[in-house]
């Protein structure tokens, strides 16, 4: 087999990429249309549907809630996930193997089942406020990504450097922040971004954890689409895509995107 | 390996550091889901009563089989196209390869609602596809494409093909080119090399990709909700409808239990198979 793939395969790959890109182009086009209905190619260019997002209070509110939840959830996941990832690598011999598997469980369990279980046990069962339940749900949703990505970057860290610092008199906590953390900075950034985007776009967990006045942007988009079929949804979608692009640009600059494919 | 002078103390530190995350997973994930599943076996009508009534309902069994069918078809289509695309990507020159990987990552990071919504614009009654077909005179009336199983599958393949491509590119890159060259220099035709060398070596990656796609499409909510509607109810949309519209907690819990058991069974079965047939396994 020669190194160059068969022309048929190249044609298929080109079609697959066409299939992947066209719908996103259409959403952007529809968002820019000056019409009151969804159409592509756009008829007349206008940004008025983008303005409309901010005129609808439900969108304003849910954008804020989504950003709050994504930021706080990711932060909490990092605070509890970094020590866990560190322990899993540093004390690999002492800790049982199943502990590593435990942190992958949230990916294994269907998200929608997880959301329903939280509704049943937290919101209905224990009377936990919706915002808190939503935050707990998102924290656990992103925890596996945090632990996995940071574990991966700790796997290549030589812990004898840390031992050397400690035996030379550096305090363990100080050593962690001055020796270990700088070496896994890229991993922490990648984990933050991956977790943030996952939380921002989540539907299945949030679905059950919304209530009067509290909802997330994707859930609000779902609700809006089922009632109105105007370009507002397209422009909100573009807004979400822009957030993703911005975030990806940061990843690309810090550590290269191929990192995400691993 | 560093010296461990106080193994017991080390273990305790390890446990202490991982305790918050461990307790969070136990308390907020395992216990709530365990409670949902356990609850289905405490029905006053009998231990398996909720399951008996689930499978006695023609509609609900149809939903289960429809969900399995959609997931299976999505997986097969994604495997075929994902494999061919991943092969081309893995053999592309450096610069183009990273561009192609970025192009596959991007849709993956775009939300599921956005991606389902895009197909709503394309497949709708006055959508782009219908307008094109009418304009070309291929049909004289707009086709009803939304709310069909086909629409759901197209939306799902769109959702999961990038995942398949990305999980296969790594595997295909790791297959040494020498092996393929050896095969062809020993006289194997490209087709024989494909079937007898490339495909068997890619099986572990194909299994990982298949598990991701199957479990993902088996439990997806937004895509079947937007593109399938009530006509194409699947387990996820039925679960939501039972819980939030009908307030049928027992019914919703039963669906949740069925989804969890099937998902975990498939992951375990496939990883068992992957371990057995992996030719590179140690």
Distance between the termini of chain A: 27 Å
Under the CATH scheme, the architecture of the largest domain in chain A is Orthogonal Bundle
Q: What's the domain count of chain B?
A: 1
Structural class by SSE content of chain A = mainly alpha
Helicity level of chain A, as a percent range? over 70%
Greatest interface and its residue counts? A-B, 92 and 95 residues
Low-confidence stretches of chain A: none
Task: Please state roughly what percent of the residues of chain B sit in beta strands, choosing from under 5%, 5-15%, 15-25%, 25-35%, 35-45% or over 45%.
Answer: under 5%
What is the quaternary state of this protein?
heterodimer
> How many helices of chain A in DSSP terms?
12
Cα end-to-end separation of chain B: 22 Å
User: Helix amount of chain B, in percent?
Assistant: over 70%
Examine the secondary-structure arrangement and name the CATH architecture of chain B: Orthogonal Bundle
How many domains is the backbone of chain A divided into? 2
Order of secondary-structure elements of chain A = HHHHHHHHHHHH
What's the gyration radius of chain B in Å? 24 Å
Description of the molecule:
By secondary structure, chain A is an all-alpha fold. Chain A has helices spanning 7-32, 48-55, 57-90, 98-102, 105-108, 111-125, 130-155, 159-167, 172-183, 185-201, 217-227, 231-255. The radius of gyration of chain A is 22 Å and the shape is globular. By secondary structure, chain B is mainly alpha-helical. Chain B has one domain (49-277): MetI-like fold (Orthogonal Bundle). In chain B, α9 (190-219) runs antiparallel to α12. Chain B is globular. Chains A and B meet through α1, α3, α5, α6 and α7 of A and α1, α3, α4, α5 and α7 of B.
């Amino acid at each position: 087999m020669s190194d160059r793939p068969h022309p048929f395969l190249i044609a298929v790959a080109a079609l697959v990429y066409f299939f992947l890109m066209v719908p996103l182009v259409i959403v952007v086009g529809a968002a820019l249309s000056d019409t009151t209905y969804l159409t592509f190619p756009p008829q007349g260019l206008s940004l008025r549907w983008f303005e409309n997002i901010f005129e609808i209070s439900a969108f304003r509110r849910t954008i804020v809630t989504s950003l709050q939840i994504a930021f706080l959830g990711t932060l909490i996941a990092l605070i509890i996930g970094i020590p866990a990832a560190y322990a899993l690598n540093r004390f690999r011999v002492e800790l049982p193997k199943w502990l590593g598997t435990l942190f992958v469980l949230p990916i294994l369990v269907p998200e929608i089942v997880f959301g329903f279980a939280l509704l049943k046990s937290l919101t209905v069962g224990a009377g936990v406020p919706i915002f808190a339940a939503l935050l707990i749900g998102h924290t656990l949703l992103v925890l596996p990504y945090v632990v996995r990505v940071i574990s991966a970057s700790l796997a290549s860290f030589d812990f004898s450097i840390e031992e050397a610092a400690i035996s030379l008199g550096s305090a363990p906590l100080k050593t962690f922040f001055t020796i270990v953390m700088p070496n896994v900075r890229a991993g922490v950034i990648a984990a933050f971004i991956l977790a943030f985007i996952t939380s921002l776009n989540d539907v299945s967990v949030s679905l059950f954890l919304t209530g009067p006045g509290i909802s997330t942007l994707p859930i609000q988009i779902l609700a809006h689409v089922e009632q109105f079929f105007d370009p507002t949804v397209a422009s909100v979608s573009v807004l979400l895509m822009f957030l993703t692009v911005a975030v990806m640009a940061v990843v690309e600059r810090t550590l290269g995107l191929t990192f995400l494919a691993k | 390996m560093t010296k461990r002078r106080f193994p017991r103390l080390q273990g305790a530190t390890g446990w202490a550091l991982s305790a918050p995350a461990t307790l969070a997973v136990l308390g907020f994930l395992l216990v709530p889901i365990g409670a949902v599943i356990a609850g289905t076996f405490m029905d006053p009508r009998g231990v398996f009563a909720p399951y008996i009534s689930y499978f006695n309902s023609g509609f609900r069994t149809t939903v289960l089989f429809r969900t399995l069918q959609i997931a299976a078809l999505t997986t097969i289509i994604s495997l075929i196209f994902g494999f061919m695309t991943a092969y081309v990507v893995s053999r592309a020159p450096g610069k183009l390869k990273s561009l192609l990987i970025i192009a596959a990552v991007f849709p993956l990071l775009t939300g599921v609602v956005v991606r389902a919504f895009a197909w709503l614009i394309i497949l709708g009654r006055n959508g782009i596809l219908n307008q094109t077909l009418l304009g070309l005179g291929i049909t004289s009336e707009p086709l009803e494409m939304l709310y069909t199983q086909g629409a759901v599958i197209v939306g799902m393949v769109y959702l999961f093909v990038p995942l398949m491509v990305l999980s296969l590119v790594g595997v295909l890159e790791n297959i040494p080119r020498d092996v393929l060259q050896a095969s062809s220099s020993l006289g194997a035709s490209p087709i024989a090399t494909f079937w007898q060398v490339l495909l068997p070596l890619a099986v572990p990656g194909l299994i990982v990709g298949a598990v991701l796609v199957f479990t993902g499409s088996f439990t997806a909510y937004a895509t079947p909700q937007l593109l399938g509607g009530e006509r194409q109810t699947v387990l996820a949309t039925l679960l939501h409808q039972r819980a939030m519209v009908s307030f049928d907690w027992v019914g919703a819990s039963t669906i949740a239990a069925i989804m969890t058991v099937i998902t975990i069974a498939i992951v375990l079965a496939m990883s068992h198979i992957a371990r057995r047939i992996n030719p590179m396994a140690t």
